[in-house]
Amino acid sequence: MPVRQDPPGTRTLEAFVRAAEASSLSVAAKTLGLTQSAVSQRIASLERQLGARLFLRTPAGVILTSVGEAYLPAVRTALDGLRHAQERIVSRKTAVRLSVVPSFARCWLLPRLGKLATAHPDVDIVLHVSDERVEVDDGGYDLAVRLSRSAADSIRLFDDGEDERVVVVARSTRIVSDADDPFAGLTLYHDDCSRLGVPAEQGWTQWYEATERSRPAWAPGIVVNDASMAAGAAIAGQGVALVRRLLVRDHLLDGTLATLGPPLPHAGRTTLITRRRTTRTASADRVADWLVDEASRGCAEKADPAPDHAHPNP
């Protein structure tokens, strides 16, 4: 079995590349800030390690041997790869990779991205939008916002009131609030929470039961895996949506939407997942603090122009 040899050091390889490019040991030495003797010793050491001559010495300088010519492209590629890898690692110190679920991204984060950028102009936010499970400690993300049935090992961003599910309807949508079925003829939109162990149809069934109404078997309904679509449909007057309050809080505050009936308990909590303290960066901590503060500020805004359980005019 051949004896494994460690690769040459980067300083030795750099001396080889500089000498090959300049065809001169003295020029290579000046470029590297070394003496000519030091460069010569490094190249000699490399040749001994490889068991081959890389240069021919001439009165005019040095020229590559056939072995040296074959070796040079590989060394350049290796050094360039190391430099690029180092640059990426260094640049990551000012970048924060944030993964968020689509509904949170569109309904809550997007209107606040400008504020986040202004608050931390020295941080590059790399935003990843997906509802797939991600790893922060062993994966490529610094922070992640996910809907979870348990807040263990994560930070709750919102209080229970914001994660409650509420029925919302556009003020322009005509309903009969005191009818047995106030949404007769309207499409019912709701989020698919089956990934949290909640049956897709359970939300609307709970709402009808909580208001002591019977949901008609023929009521049209659309299940979406992105709650922002349900919220958007309600805002556009295309139906009624059952969504988490935090996703429509801004539209409740400006009066675009109103709620009807009692809220339902949350199906999961919106949580912020962070790296272990030993692997977190200062930039990620600052962005995490901003998200927590901004979420708390939103929870404190209770002055809805359309109070909870308000009934739009028929």
UniProtKB/TrEMBL annotation:
Highest taxon of the lineage? Bacteria
A GO molecular function held by the record: sequence-specific DNA binding
Q: Which PROSITE patterns match?
A: HTH_LYSR (PS50931)
Family matches, as Pfam families: HTH_1 (PF00126), LysR_substrate (PF03466)
Q: Which UniProt keywords apply?
A: DNA-binding, Transcription, Transcription regulation
HTH lysR-type domain boundaries: 8-65
GO BP terms, alphabetized: DNA-templated transcription
Q: What does this protein do?
A: Transcriptional regulator of the ttuABCDE tartrate utilization operon.
Name the protein family.
Answer: Belongs to the LysR transcriptional regulatory family.
| Protein's recorded name | HTH-type transcriptional regulator TtuA
